[in-house]
Amino acid sequence: MAQLVRDVMTLNPVTLPATASLVEAALAMRDFDMGDVLVLDNGQVCGIVTDRDIVVRGIAAGNYPATVTLGEICSRDLTTLSATDRVEDAVSLMREKAIRRLPVVEGGKPVGIVSLGDLAVERDPHSALSDISAAPPNR
């Protein structure tokens, strides 16, 4: 029987509205020890922002982090999965699109996120990527 995305995904992804500032996203990432935030518009997933996006699209572009919104810098061309999709589908999508994170969505609402690290821990638990992904945060 094929393993499903729900078996490997991280539940309860961090979400913020598109109107939230980059500072709010950075604080959420710090507080929840995450490298990404799903962006919502009227409760529906409309994008994703990573820690790298905050630096490259936000700060390095000369924007002031307290006034720039997530809606202004988020990646909106999202590839998403359902919790009932197969893990092989997640692997294929990540490979095909060269992405590290896939939001898991049901009816437009976020229910989880599956990352390259999640897949490494599940599929190759003795790999360097798995060790790094499973390690406690370095604060």
Name of the CATH architecture: Roll
Domain unit count: 1
Q: What profile does the largest beta sheet have? A: 3 strands, antiparallel
Shape: elongated
Might you state the CATH topology name?
CBS-domain
Helix content: 25-40%
What's the average pLDDT?
Answer: 87
Which key terms come to mind for this protein?
single chain; 139 residues; alpha+beta; CBS-domain; three-stranded mixed beta sheet; elongated
Descriptive report:
The chain has 139 residues and is of the alpha+beta class. It has one domain (5-134): CBS-domain, CATH 3.10.580. Helix content is 36%, strand content 22%. The protein is built from six helices and six strands. The strands form two sheets. It has a three-stranded antiparallel beta sheet with strand order 1-6-5.
Entry summary:
With 139 residues, the protein is an alpha+beta fold.
